[in-house]
C-alpha cells in the first residue's frame, strides 16, 4: 500500500516536472516552429502549431543576407576566450579565498558581487571612451576582456563554493609531500574540482554567449557576435517574425547542442556539495 | 609587341594601385526596414562604380539609435555613415556632430528633394542628412466595410466622420473593429500618433516659452476623443498595440480603418501577406477643420559623423544611395512599387511611378505636413510628431505610459494629463528651459 502511494506521488511529481519543463521550453519550441513557417503563417490567428507547409525559405533568406559564420566565430571566440581568461584568474583567487582566508575575504567576495548590481548602462560611456583610447572598439580582444570582467565575480564565487567542499587536509598532505603551490593547484586541487570547474566554465560560456548589452554596444561590423545577428532581424515596422525566428534558431542552436551534450556535467556541477 | 605588353601591364598596375589607394572600406549603420535591406542587396553597384566596399551593421531601430548616439557623442568613429531620423538630425547638427551636405554634386540635385523633407533635415538652411526615404501617415481603410456601412470616404475626412464610420463598421461579435490605432507606450509609438493627432485638435506640447501645455483644453479634447473612440470601436488590448500588431490585425481583416505610416500601404496591398489586399483604400489623415491634419512626417536619412576619416568616400556613398539613379536601379531590379518613396520630387513626376496605387496619397500626406509650423498656435520647436530637443524622447516616453494607462482604463484622462503636465514641467525645468 505504501509502495502504491509512493508510485502515485512519483507519477504526480513526474507530471509536474514535465509540465514545468514543457512550459519553460515552449517559447524556444515556438521560435523553432515559426522559423519553418511563411510570414503569413507566423502571424495567423488562430496560430498554427504543427500542420502547416514547412519551408526552409527563411533560412535561405537569412543565409543570403548575413554572414552567419562570421557572427558565429565571433561568438565562439568571445565566449570561449572570456571563459578561459576568467578561469585563469579565478582559480588562484578562489583558492586563496577558500584555503587561506583573511579577515577581509568575505568583504571582498561581497564587494565583487556588488559590481554585478550596477546597471550596465551606467558605465557605458566610460567604458566606450576607454575602448576608443585603447583602440579596441569593435575588436574581439576588447569584448573578451569586458566579458571576462563582467563574469569574473560569478566565476570566483562558484569556484570558491566548490573549493570549500574539498578537505583542506588533502592539500596539506600534498604540501607535506613537497608539492609547490603551482603543483598543488594544478595537480591536486583542479582534478578534484573538475565537476565544479566544468559547470562554472559552461555557465560562464552560456552567459557570455547570451550577453546582449556590451556585445551590441561595443561592436560594429568586425567583432559583432550572434546577438547582433539576431538584432539585425528585428523590425518595428514590418512583420518579419519568421525570419527573426530563423535567425534566433541559428543563434541558439550551437549553445543548445552544447548544453544537451554536457547536461550531465552541468547538473553534477550545479548540485556539487548540495547534498551531503 | 613586347613593348606594348609591357606598357599595358604597367598601365594596369598603375590603375590598380590608384584604385587601391583610394578604395576605402565604409562601415554603415542602418535599420532593418525593407528599403534598407534592398539597398544592402544592391551594394555591389556602388562598389563597381567607386571601388569602395561596404560593411553593413543592421540593427533594430531602438538599438541602432542607442548605438549610433553613443558613438557620435564620444567621437568613436565606429561608423562612416549612419542612418538617422528627422528627430536626431537637427539636434546632432546643432551639436556639430554631422558633416554638412552643402557640397554635393550638381547631378545629385539637392533642389529635387521634397521641401518638407529638406526642412526637417536642415538647420539654418543647411542640409545635414540626405533623405533616403520619407513617410507620413494616412488612413488605410477597408473599401468593402465602408460600403457596407453605407458611407463614402472623402479624400480629406474629418475626425468626426472617421469616428462615426469606425463605430458603424464595428462588429465585435465577428471580431471586426472599426479602427486600429497605436496604444503601445513610447515616444515613437503612441506618442507619434497622439502628438500628430493633437496638432489637428489645436493642441501643442509647449508654448513659445517652453511651458508644457497638457493642462490646456485642446489636449483634454484630443485624449478624451481618442480613448472614447478606441473603447467603442477599437480592438481589445489596444494599449499594447504598435505598428506591427495593427498591421497584423489589418492584414487578417480585423480592422475597418488603420491610421499609420504610409510605408504600411505596400504591406497591406501585398496579396501574399494580406487577406484584404484588394479591398484597401487610402485617405489623408483626419482633421478637425482647424487647418492641420493628424499626419506625421518622418525621414530615414543618411548622415556622416563629423570627424570620420573617410568623409569623401562616405559622401560618395550618400550621393549614390540617395540619387535619382539609385531609384532607377531599384525600379529595374525590384519594380517601381519598391523604390524608396517620399524623398524626391522627380519620383512623383515619373510616369511609371504614377501607377503605384498609394503613390499619390503618400505625396499628398507628406506635403501636408510642415515640421517648421506643425501646430495651429505657434511653437518654439521643429517636428510634427515630436519636438526636436534632446529631452523629448525621455519625456514623451513617460507621457506615453500615462496615456497608454488611460487607454487601458487604469486611470482617467484627467489623471493622465495631470501627471503628464507635472512630469513634463519637472523635466523641462531640470533641463534649464
From TrEMBL, chain A:
<keyword id="KW-0812">Transmembrane</keyword>
<comment type="similarity">
    <text>Belongs to the binding-protein-dependent transport system permease family.</text>
</comment>
<feature type="transmembrane region" description="Helical">
    <location>
        <begin position="184"/>
        <end position="209"/>
    </location>
</feature>
<dbReference type="GO" id="GO:0005886">
    <property type="term" value="C:plasma membrane"/>
</dbReference>
<keyword id="KW-0813">Transport</keyword>
<feature type="domain" description="ABC transmembrane type-1">
    <location>
        <begin position="72"/>
        <end position="262"/>
    </location>
</feature>
<dbReference type="InterPro" id="IPR000515">
    <property type="entry name" value="MetI-like"/>
</dbReference>
<keyword id="KW-0472">Membrane</keyword>
<dbReference type="InterPro" id="IPR035906">
    <property type="entry name" value="MetI-like_sf"/>
</dbReference>
<feature type="transmembrane region" description="Helical">
    <location>
        <begin position="12"/>
        <end position="33"/>
    </location>
</feature>
<keyword id="KW-1133">Transmembrane helix</keyword>
<dbReference type="Pfam" id="PF00528">
    <property type="entry name" value="BPD_transp_1"/>
</dbReference>
<protein>
    <submittedName>
        <fullName>Sorbitol ABC transporter membrane protein /mannitol ABC transporter membrane protein</fullName>
    </submittedName>
</protein>
<feature type="transmembrane region" description="Helical">
    <location>
        <begin position="143"/>
        <end position="163"/>
    </location>
</feature>
<feature type="transmembrane region" description="Helical">
    <location>
        <begin position="71"/>
        <end position="96"/>
    </location>
</feature>
<feature type="transmembrane region" description="Helical">
    <location>
        <begin position="108"/>
        <end position="131"/>
    </location>
</feature>
<keyword id="KW-1003">Cell membrane</keyword>
<dbReference type="GO" id="GO:0055085">
    <property type="term" value="P:transmembrane transport"/>
</dbReference>
<feature type="transmembrane region" description="Helical">
    <location>
        <begin position="240"/>
        <end position="261"/>
    </location>
</feature>
<dbReference type="InterPro" id="IPR050901">
    <property type="entry name" value="BP-dep_ABC_trans_perm"/>
</dbReference>
